[in-house]
């Protein structure tokens, strides 16, 4: 008899696993069940449909050759039976049956299986606040919501919106609404920065400035208390600090893995609700596999179970599961956490741990950052790139890298290179300093920005200088009367003197003049030095050290980083 394969969940992983299994084992009876109408769609593309960059909602459900992936497509093209509007309610592991219920008719039945795949995904996290059930309070994870939001915008019904959550989806939603439809958007994030957990506070300030400079208000360290409405439709968001008018509220405050059906069946589930699987994507029952947004996966940097709901990961895991359903031995060893997001003028990308997360995981971590052009400095087309490298002081092991750049493709290329190194080894700072990067002036510098951030980290670990980020430098400047720091601007004379004319405490001493003017620099006070990107400041620092001035901090990233954060002297 042919094997009966049941797959629960039809968005990303489920269809991939079902189709892969059927290709390798054509005689199998593969059935996919999903409680929704639409299946096999690119959920990560939803904000781009709302923004109008993707014109047709069916494009998110289509193959590269423009065939819509519906139940008929899977039946005719893949040999997979699909039952939509069918909810899985319970697993009987002893009898090897799955209880299901038709959400329209209420009809219940039990489906037998030889092997079962759980691709149950995750549920948007919605705070238990008053008014959350009002109309026009949505999440941006389903096609139906995307269609409703875009229609309302086209009809001019939405002029003000509040996004609850400053992560990827929340910011993409704000960009889509503000950029295409001119909707006045406010982002409310309960922690003290946007993109929490994936960016340092300094680089997150750059993301916030990109939003604010395009008329998207960003409120951090703020909590939604309740929603108010008129005639059953949301009209206002009340936080613990203010009131915001809104005809639309989008909850984008993270996800809760849908592991309940597995837990009720006695399968191993992590404390945070995700299903535990091995490297073959098997659960604690060898006849049941699971993957995608509902599972806990090993973090290859910490060695601990983690959670990362991404469509790219779900697709890769789906192929592994499909192979193993057909008798293969494919492995999914874990993740390093690569991500990317495009905002307005800037794109942000990263991999691995931020410095704060690294410290929470017990590493003695530091971070260093640089600003450098993504292409050769003499090439006419170029963009200034921010890269921040996170390393363990004791071992020089690289733990992560994040960055920002107007050219998202350039940034992603650098992060992907480091991601590959992190996935298959434990690279050190020296490895990053010597990482081979393809070079030609239209693509990179001879000493690429990735190599440079490794070199800077090496200098910091060796104690050659003390770095401070742009925001910390500006804090020193703000409190200069109390800390008695002596400030040096090492940029070319015209730039520094323009500031010095307004602020006498700002000393314009260009790199070329430091040695000749060394007597102007006190040896009994701490010194803070800045330039445009950090390079001239470092060279100036070396000159100062040769003349006995050693209590010096250098603003890595210089004025470029300061301006990206929306700060100024």
From TrEMBL:
Protein name: NADPH-dependent 2,4-dienoyl-CoA reductase/sulfur reductase-like enzyme/rhodanese-related sulfurtransferase
A GO MF term: transferase activity
Record carries keyword Flavoprotein: yes
Domain Rhodanese as annotated: residue spans: 481-564
One Pfam family per UniProt: Rhodanese
Species whose genome carries this gene: Desulfovibrio intestinalis
Entry superkingdom: Bacteria
Cofactor(s) this protein cannot do without: FAD
Family: Belongs to the class-III pyridine nucleotide-disulfide oxidoreductase family.
Keywords: FAD, Flavoprotein, Oxidoreductase, Redox-active center, Transferase
């Amino acid at each position: 008899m042919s094997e009966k394969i049941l797959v629960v969940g039809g968005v990303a992983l489920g269809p991939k696993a079902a189709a892969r299994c059927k290709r390798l084992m054509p005689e199998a009876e593969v059935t996919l069940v999903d409680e929704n109408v639409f299946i096999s769609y690119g959920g990560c593309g939803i904000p781009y449909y709302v923004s109008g960059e993707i014109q047709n909602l069916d494009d998110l459900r289509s193959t590269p050759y423009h065939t819509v992936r519906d139940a008929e497509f899977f039946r005719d093209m893949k040999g997979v039976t699909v039952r939509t509007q069918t909810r899985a309610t319970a697993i009987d592991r002893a009898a090897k049956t799955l209880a299901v219920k038709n959400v329209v008719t209420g009809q219940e039945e039990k489906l037998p299986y030889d092997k079962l795949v759980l691709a149950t995904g995750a549920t948007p996290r919605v705070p238990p606040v008053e008014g959350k059930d009002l109309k026009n309070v949505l999440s941006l994870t389903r096609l139906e919501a995307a269609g409703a939001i875009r229609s309302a915008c086209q009809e001019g019904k939405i002029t003000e919106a509040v996004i609850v959550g400053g992560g990827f989806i929340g910011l993409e939603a704000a960009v889509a609404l503000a950029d295409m439809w001119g909707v006045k958007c406010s982002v409310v994030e309960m922690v003290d920065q946007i993109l929490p957990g994936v960016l340092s506070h300094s680089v997150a300030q750059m993301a916030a400035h990109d939003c604010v400079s395009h008329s998207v208000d960003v409120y951090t360290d703020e909590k939604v208390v309740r929603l108010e409405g008129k005639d059953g439709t949301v009209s206002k968001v009340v936080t613990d600090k203010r009131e915001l008018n809104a005809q639309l509220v989008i909850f984008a405050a993270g996800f809760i893995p849908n592991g309940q059906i597995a837990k009720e069946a006695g399968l191993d589930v992590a404390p945070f609700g995700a299903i535990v699987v091995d490297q073959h994507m098997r659960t604690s029952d060898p006849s049941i596999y699971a993957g995608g947004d509902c599972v806990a996966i090993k973090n290859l940097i910490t060695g601990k179970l983690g959670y990362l709901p991404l469509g790219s990961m779900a697709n890769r895991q789906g192929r592994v599961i499909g192979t193993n359903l057909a008798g293969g031995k494919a492995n999914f060893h874990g993740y390093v956490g690569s991500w990317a997001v495009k905002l307005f003028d800037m794109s942000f990308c990263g991999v691995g741990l931020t410095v704060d997360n690294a410290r929470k995981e017990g590493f003695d971590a530091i971070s260093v950052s640089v600003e450098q052009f993504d292409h050769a400095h003499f090439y006419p087309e170029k963009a200034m790139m921010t890269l921040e490298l996170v390393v363990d002081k004791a071992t020089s092991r690289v733990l992560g890298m994040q960055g920002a750049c107007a050219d998202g493709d350039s940034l992603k290329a650098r992060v992907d290179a480091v991601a590959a190194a992190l996935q298959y080894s434990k690279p050190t700072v020296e490895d990053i300093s010597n990482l081979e990067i393809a070079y030609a002036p239209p693509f990179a510098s001879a000493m690429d920005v990735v190599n440079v951030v490794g070199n800077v980290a090496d200098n910091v670990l060796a104690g050659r200088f003390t770095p401070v980020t742009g925001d910390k430098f500006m804090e020193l400047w703000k409190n200069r009367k109390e800390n008695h720091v002596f400030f040096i601007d090492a940029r070319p004379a015209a730039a520094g003197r323009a500031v010095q004319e307004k602020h006498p405490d700002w000393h314009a001493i260009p790199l070329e003049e430091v040695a000749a003017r060394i007597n102007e620099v006190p040896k009994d006070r701490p010194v803070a030095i800045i330039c445009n990107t950090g390079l001239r400041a470092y060279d100036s620092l070396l000159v100062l050290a040769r003349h006995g001035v050693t209590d010096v901090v250098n603003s890595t990233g210089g004025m470029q980083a300061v301006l990206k954060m929306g700060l100024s002297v």
